[in-house]
Amino acid sequence: MRVMVIYSSQSKKFDSLAEVMSATLQSKGHQVEKIKVERAGRIPSLFAYDLVFVGSPVEGFWGGKFSEELSNFIGKCVGFEGKKSAVFVYPKTFGTGKAMKRIMRRLEEKGSIVIDFRSIKNKSEARAFAEKLGRKRTR
Fold first, then answer.
1. Residue 10 to residue 93: CA distance in whole angstroms
2. How many helices (H) and strands (E) does the chain have?
3. What is the pTM for the complete model shown?
4. Cβ(81)–Cβ(46) under 8 Å?
5. String of DSSP letters for 23-65
6. Helix, strand, coil % (nearest 5) of the chain?
7. Which of 25, 64, 78, 94 would staple 98 via disulfide (CB 3.0–4.6 Å)?
8. Is residue 138 helix, strand or coil?
9. Up-side HSE of residue 11: CA atoms within 13 Å toward CB?
């Protein structure tokens, strides 16, 4: 399976969660490409991928928001139509569910099919989420 991990982050902790997910998927034999939107030099075409992970820490004083950079990046990507995706966020006390719903809505506006979502606090949760979706058949 070809997998793309797209995420936005201003913290090394969230970077490490995305890295654990990528490494876990690779260890299962999947081809994985990872893009941190703040460092992305290009906007990818997603047609070649079977599954796209999309993640961000929950933002805002009361939560409920996600990275504006990620939202803009999703808007510029091509190939989300009919593509299976999974959403992951680093939670806050308030607004975690609302932030996940906003990311899912953004992906669905682009034509993606969200097959799973998760609030991830640590590396073991990131590994478990990647293992679960790495076992699923996406076709």
1. 18
2. 4, 5
3. 0.93
4. no
5. HHHHHTT-EEEEEEGGG-SSPPB-TT-SEEEEEEE-BSTT--B
6. 40, 25, 35
7. 64
8. coil
9. 12
Look at the block and give the residue holding tokens 């699923």: 136
Secondary structure class of 82 (helix, strand, coil): coil
C-alpha R_g of the chain: 13
Q: Measure the CA–CA gap between 139 and 49, rounded to whole angstroms.
A: 11
Q: Sketch out the chain's domains with CATH numbers.
A: 2-135 (3.40.50.360)
CA pair distance 33, 42, nearest whole angstrom: 13
- CA distance linking residue 70 with residue 74, whole number of Å: 6
Q: In angstroms, rounded to a whole number, what is the distance separating the alpha carbons of residues 110 and 33?
A: 20
The residue type at 102: R
For residue range 80-130, list pLDDT tens digits in order: 999 999 999 999 999 999 999 999 999 999 999 999 999 999 999 999 999
